[in-house]
Task: inverse folding
């Protein structure tokens, strides 16, 4: 395992949560630069930013990064650490293994919906926050050695991926698999949402005495999807046939349970 593993990513990506658990799982020291900030300044981040503005916060954040970077173990950073050119250079020069914890913007907003500790969340408008998100993405990528997609994954699962990745030679395969794992979870969540709608359909059919299986409807679904996706080289007619069969069979089973 590398001497220092540094977690970067936007607010709410899970740097603090995952960093703590990764350090525990691998028996290493854990440092969170936001906690170090509070220790060093004797002030909460909210109070410090209120008094000194974001630029004052950034200057102190750079000092703390430079002081703590040599610490072996897991270091979780604050989401804005990569905004400064100096910080990015310091991070690149440090030799730490830098992991970008990625999550989509909607997931971030959901995770932070009841947060009160992050001043920027309150100070910035939604447009400014979105702009900040977009501005930072290439900067995270610039310093990262590997990316872990966190959408739909528990911190435990992410720690597991990280421990695998950190003992592997080829990070690129792990990053790509991480993306696939995240997409698989999103697909399953969508299927679960589809089943919820199917249950409502079953209730309507039951009320009106309509039979569960409607062969025309299945053919229509297949036909429409094939037309819509005919120019997508990744989606073959066979894939559509297989997927629709799977989805409709799942739906029929569920509806039959409800209608009987
Ligand atoms: N993988 C995850 N899945 C769901 N919720 C998460 C995940 N990682 C973190 N969270 C939650 O999101 C919020 C922000 O996490 P935190 O670790 O503080 O993020 P960061 O340090 O990147 O800002 C916390 O409430 C935490 O419990
Ligand atoms: O994104 C940012 O600019 C910030 C993220 C926070 O850390 P987390 O990323 O751990 O929330 C904290 O450093 C401060 O509120 C500013
Ligand atoms: Mg944090």
Result:
């Amino acid at each position: 395992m590398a001497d220092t593993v540094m977690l970067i990513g936007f607010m709410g990506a899970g740097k603090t949560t995952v960093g703590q658990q990764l350090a525990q799982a691998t028996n290493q020291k854990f440092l969170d630069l936001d906690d170090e900030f509070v220790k060093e300044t004797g002030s909460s981040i909210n109070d410090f930013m209120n008094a000194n503005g974001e630029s004052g916060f950034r200057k102190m954040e750079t000092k703390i990064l430079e002081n703590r970077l040599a610490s072996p173990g897991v270091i979780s950073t604050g989401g804005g650490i990569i905004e400064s050119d100096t910080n990015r250079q310091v991070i690149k020069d440090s030799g730490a293994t830098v992991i970008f914890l990625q999550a989509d913007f909607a997931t971030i907003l959901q995770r932070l919906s009841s947060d009160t500790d992050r001043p920027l969340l309150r100070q910035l408008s939604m447009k400014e926050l979105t702009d900040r998100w977009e501005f930072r993405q290439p900067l995270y990528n610039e310093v990262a050695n590997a990316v872990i997609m966190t959408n739909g994954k528990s911190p435990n699962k992410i720690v597991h991926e990280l421990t695998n990745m950190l003992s592997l030679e080829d990070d690129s395969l792990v990053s790509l698999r991480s993306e696939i794992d995240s997409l698989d979870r999103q697909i399953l969540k969508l299927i679960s949402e589809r089943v919820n709608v199917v249950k409502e359909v079953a209730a309507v059919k039951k009320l009106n005495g309509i039979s569960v299986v409607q062969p025309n409807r299945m053919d229509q679904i297949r036909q429409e999807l094939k037309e819509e996706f005919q120019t997508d080289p990744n989606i073959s007619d066979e894939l559509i046939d297989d997927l629709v069969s799977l989805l409709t069979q799942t739906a029929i089973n569920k509806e039959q349970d409800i209608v009987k």
